[in-house]
Amino acid sequence: MSEALANLLNETRQFPPPAELAANANVTADAYAEAAEDRLAFWERQAGRLHWDRQWNQVLDWSNAPFAKWFVGGQLNVAYNCLDRHVEAGRGDKVAIHWEGEPGDTRTVTYADLHKLTCQAANALTELGVTAGDRVAIYLPMIPEAAVAMLACARIGATHSVVFGGFSADALTNRIQDASAKVVITADGGFRRGKPSALKPTVDEAVANCPSVEHVLVVRRTGEEVAWSAKDHWWHETVETASPEHTAQPFDAEHPLFILYTSGTTARPKGILHTTGGYLTQTSYTTHAVFDLKPETDVYWCTADIGWVTGHSYIVYGPLSNGATQVMYEGTPDTPHKGRFWEIVDKYKVTILYTAPTLIRTMMKWGEDIPAGYDLSSLRLLGSVGEPINPEAWIWYRQYVGRGELPVVDTWWQTETGAIMISPLPGVTEAKPGSAMTPLPGIVADVVDDQGQSVPNGGGGYLVLREPWPSMLRTIWGDDNRFIETYWSRFGAGANQGGDWVYFAGDGAKKDDDGHIWLLGRVDDVMLVSGHNISTTEVESALVSHPSVAEAAVVGATDPTTGQAIVAFAIPRGSTEISGAAGEQLIADLRNHVAKTLGPIAKPRQIMLVPELPKTRSGKIMRRLLRDVAEHRSLGDVTTLQDSSVMDMISSGMGAGK
Ligand code: ATP
Ligand code: MG
Hints:
Bound molecules: adenosine-5'-triphosphate, magnesium ion
CATH architecture of the domain at 530-654: 2-Layer Sandwich
Strand content: 15-25%
Structural class: alpha/beta
CATH superfamily of the domain at 530-654: ANL, C-terminal domain
Shape: globular
């Protein structure tokens, strides 16, 4: 970016918290003041929400910045905090996981059950020779064993590396090799889109090229036939026959807890390393604060996959450390029908729902009649994560899922940040649709210009974090230089001369007139049109605010007169007529609608009506591929793409030249 981002979108709607929620909120406005007064003391108090076997002697050691140490000298066991302490407090019979398989089979797993299974898995892994510091790869469907496998690793100090079950053998191989994993935990398969989807053959293919792997533990889920080798062990013969007695040893606060590869939206995935004490402190606190989680009464459901950081922090570590009861669902949102999510909310009386904009926009596309067919009255709080949420999608979510009453928390964070960083507090913040609002207590975020200077309210630029935070990544696994280069060098030049280290998140953002933060998409996606930096997010949000559009992606394509020109891809809502003249008319209307909403500078040169958009397997729009299409290039790396046939559909329509 050669100048600050143009600030085009003007969204003025604002929604105060429901009075009852505000009156009973876990966290009130005081938290901001307390953290502002003494940030480290604030985090020290949040660490005190956990059970420590040994107290730390220093909250933060930043002397070797940007390599942080939090709660130095402290010791704890993550699995003990997520399981044993609830069981010891007499809450063993409380449901930890209401599990729903895609075919409709169910399991009810209590804290006592989860504790027992985790102890057995810890014993089985130890028996297989896994010791503290070893890496274990986990490649599982969304079944309770996924949480058990992670917790068992944490319990014995092994570092897990969860690989999303949709990834190919190549992707799995790279991740196993990068971390030199000793054991792989997998399943015969899982159920997806109404049929078994095999995992074991992919593991077999990967393991053949991974000499570090000594053993493969296989959960039986689908019952399909699998090939077997000397390294393979059935979970039910190994784990479920192991002793349920296991005493958790404490580990150092900085002991490596897990490696997780970023989703690869912009570049080659990075193996992000998280450690123990700071990570658990912040995931646990943010679950309590942002979701206002009341473990006695709430039923929480995060729809993410365990293969993403959201699954790590807000299915496993955050909710379980708080003693939550949650729903875990194996399958896809439209199997066997498009109301499946709402059916699950209704069935388990879910009170807190945390999902992604891509799903909300898909639900918009399917139409509001579908959620209207279910009783969603148990819900009291809605959350969003993964991409900027367009104001219209936010409003739709609140209106048709949240009865027009519920707070929506738009939570900004990354694999690298480990936990939520910028978000409304549901009992405090008067949320604006499309804005992540303010940094959480204890977090110092800012928006800066090219020179790293804070932009004034009303300005746009780069999102940065000015102070270290407990759940921050500690490095990129095996690549300290890439860690410094990627995150700490863009605005960190002063650091070498005794200035401050500034974390560069890679996202564009603006501050509105009230100083609230709006995420504007990745810096790599920002467009430069006639000398103006324009955010893809804002143009997309303008398109989505048209009643006929459910979802849109926008890219800047090279243009001889304007430098870059805006090319948009839009998915029409359910019943919209798009063939022939009706389609031409809609495109003309949409171009004018954007010009009217954002100004003539943002009027797309070209709009394509498409049935789908290319997305990563975590559901994020991959704009770089659309840029390839718009510039008539052959496609770049598509290995993290969810469905490669989407690109054929889009490319073939491109010749039509709208
Ligand atoms: P890679 O870094 O490999 O390109 P990725 O950034 O998609 O992959 P994640 O760590 O899963 O991997 O995603 C974090 C990014 O997702 C953020 O940097 C931001 O761009 C986007 N994001 C997440 N939540 C929000 C949100 N609430 N609002 C806006 N953007 C969000
Ligand atoms: Mg990223």
